[in-house]
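Morning, I've got a small favour to ask if you have a moment. I owe you a coffee for this, so here goes:
>
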Amino acid sequence: MRSLECRLKQMEGSGKVVPLTLAWRAALVLSCTAGGILATPGLARLCPARAHQKAGFYCVLSFIGLHTILANNVGTIIALWGRSSLFRLFRRPNMKQRTLLGMLTPSSNTTLEPVTAAMLAGVPEASAHFGRFRVTEIALSDSALAQFDDSEILTAAELLADARLDVIGWNGTSSGWLGFDADERLCKRITERTGIASCTSVLALNEIFERTGVRRFGLVTPYRDDVQERVIATYAKAGFECVGEQHLKLQDNFSFSEVGAEQIRAMVREVAATKPDAITIFCTNLAGAPLAAELEAETGIPIYDTISTVVWKSLRLAGVDTTRIKGWGRLFQDLT
């Protein structure tokens, strides 16, 4: 037994099998004790006077052994308890738990990270964590479309998963021109690879349209003519009519982040004149989310920015009350 104990100590020193060594130690003590107690009836027949003495000895041995295990492994026991489902069952409902949101991010995007972080400021236990993959232009050429190949996105998702996230969101709008099935397939693959719930900006927007009865919408983007036409056609195929649109005919993804607030306001006002059911600012590198609340107050029309939509859906999947997000538009207050 001593050699086995030495081996277990060596294994424990490696830091790889602490729970296993703890279980082995407990098993050793209990098995020795159980063996002794089971042998007591036979001992009683041979030597009745010593049977009770022997049983008492094994009980004392068990107590000392288990006490030693508990004393020497208290840190391990606490850690295991903290990870157990039993702990989650008995913990107080009002205990604050961290909510970790993963955001898949185009490499040249400089808007969605600061906007997402600012949006989550009212939910201090929630934090966003970003994984990038290469995207530098938005166009319909083969090379531009290849940027959204699932393999690159899944690699970024797997790295994000190391952070033990609650949700992984694709903070981008590519399925607007690739087709909604691209995002549906991506979400399925992310969850299969990582075991983590997933969502996207566009699928969240579509859910919002369905839940609020939107059929006529306005579209604001920085995209090229052909990309804009493809987005409108994708939504038309799904039963949504674009009744007003504005776009800037840009292709370089980084340039989207340099569009100023006044230009975005002007585009939204032009689209609002067509009286849509809702307006979407459809690009996660366009700084539309911080303007949503003021433009809703001005136009009386819901403004759904695609950074906001993925944050909204991610929080819902993580079980967080979205009404805690204040000042970012009616989306977070009306759809809970």
